[in-house]
Amino acid sequence: QSLLMCRWGFEKMDKIYYIVPSLVPPGPCLPRDAEGLGLKAVFDFGRSLTIGVFERLICQVMQSTIALKESSRAPIINGDNSRHFLTEDYEFTIERQPDFI
């Protein structure tokens, strides 16, 4: 497996498809949930975010989500943010900033 691309296996298809997060164009910022709800984690990289870390994180989350096929759905991925759905009741957003995720 590559570190910066991953299999897209959410829909039943006769071919195998892959996604390369670094090639996904920027899109509108995904709406955030109300402040104060849920958990928040920040990965701070000091003055600059290492190239490829955001994309690799998205690939890792997608591969974990595909393992839960029956209870998950396809993520929404834009160039700088993505929303992932692990179950019907649990979803989260990964957002890239210049120096942190």
Provide the β-strand percentage band: 15-25%
Rg over C-alpha atoms, rounded to the nearest angstrom: 14 Å
Count of runs of 4 or more consecutive helical residues: 1
Spatially, the strands of the biggest sheet line up as 3-4-5
Please tell me the overall pLDDT.
78
Question: What is the gist of this entry?
Answer:
By secondary structure, the protein is of the alpha+beta class. The protein contains one helix and five strands.
Notes on the protein architecture:
It is a single chain. By secondary structure, this protein is α+β, with helices and mostly antiparallel strands. Helix content is about 15%, strand content about 25%. The protein contains 1 helix and 5 strands. The strands form 2 sheets. The protein has a 3-stranded antiparallel beta sheet, with helices on one face. A hairpin with an 8-residue loop joins strand 1 and strand 2. The longest helix has 14 residues, at about 55-65. The chain starts with 5 loop residues before the first strand and ends in a 6-residue tail after the last strand. The mean pLDDT is about 80.
List keywords for this structure.
single chain, 101 residues, alpha+beta, 3-stranded antiparallel beta sheet, 5 strands
